[in-house]
């Protein structure tokens, strides 16, 4: 079976949605390790409740380069069986840009969730960007990670209507509900080997 590594920075609700789905035997993948760059991430306690091993590689005050930081992450992933051959890495609210070295090493094996319909509103504060733009629809996107910011091949998206009365917070809340459906679904598709990448686009088979 594939081994899963999840990288978080905070609340960990997407991680929790994935772990719940795995527990219910909906996804054929082994949750090996959860890694946080933030020692106070609430998600660490949630992972422990699920009986998943956790590690912290604190990024605050880390004096080395991005590649050096990622080397530590890669070493933990590898030790826990999340390899280039037999692993999947999920970024679940991991608020760091990962190095080209990390992306290369786990080519097409790192996926991310973003709270907008990419390619609209990449980067930080996606829900705020959506509300301020006046767009009528936003949502979430699960995509493969490439060397750009929020630019890799899109696996799946879910749509959320933006209401006139929406604030950043109310929109984020409704998008998050869709994220909790989308991320486990995308991990399942990957684990069942149903995603092909052709010319930079995915095809679900
Ligand atoms: C989620 O809304 C996720 O889409 C977003 O951070 C939140 C993490 O929540 N990620 C990004 O904005 C990445 N660019 P969670 O820790 O409860 O899963």
**Residue share in helix:** 25-40%
Q: DSSP strand (E) fraction?
A: 25-35%
Task: Give the overall pLDDT as a whole number.
Answer: 98
Unreliable parts: none
Structural class: alpha/beta
Specify the CATH homologous superfamily of the largest domain. Answer: Formyl transferase, N-terminal domain
Gyration radius, rounded? 16 Å
The description of the largest β-sheet is:
7 strands, mixed
CATH architecture of the largest domain: 3-Layer(aba) Sandwich
- The CATH topology assignment of the largest domain is Rossmann fold
Bound molecules: glycinamide ribonucleotide
What spatial order of strands do you see in the largest sheet? Answer: 3-2-1-4-5-6-7
Q: How many separate structural domains?
A: 2
Total number of strands: 9
Give the overall silhouette.
globular
CATH class of the largest domain: Alpha Beta
The total of helices stands at: 6
Euclidean distance between termini CA atoms: 20 Å
Secondary-structure element sequence? EHEHEHEHEHEEHEE
């Amino acid at each position: 079976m594939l081994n899963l590594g999840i990288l978080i920075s905070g609340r960990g609700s997407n991680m929790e949605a994935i772990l719940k789905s795995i527990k219910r035997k909906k996804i054929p993948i082994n949750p090996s390790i959860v890694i946080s760059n933030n020692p106070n991430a609430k998600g660490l306690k949630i992972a422990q409740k699920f009986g998943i091993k956790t590690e912290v590689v604190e990024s605050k005050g880390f004096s080395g380069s991005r590649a050096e930081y990622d080397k530590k992450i890669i070493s933990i992933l590898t030790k826990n069986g999340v390899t280039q051959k037999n692993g999947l890495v999920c970024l679940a609210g991991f608020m760091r840009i990962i190095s080209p070295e990390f992306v290369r090493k786990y080519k097409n094996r790192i996926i991310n969730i973003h709270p907008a319909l990419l390619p609209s509103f990449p980067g930080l504060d996606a829900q705020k960007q959506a509300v301020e733009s006046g767009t009528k629809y936003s949502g979430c996107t699960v995509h493969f990670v490439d060397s750009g910011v929020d630019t890799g091949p899109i696996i799946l998206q879910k749509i959320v209507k933006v209401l006139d009365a929406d604030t950043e917070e109310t929109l984020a809340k409704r998008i998050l509900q869709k994220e909790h459906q989308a991320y486990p679904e995308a991990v399942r598709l990957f684990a069942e080997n149903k995603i092909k990448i052709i010319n930079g686009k995915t095809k679900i088979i």
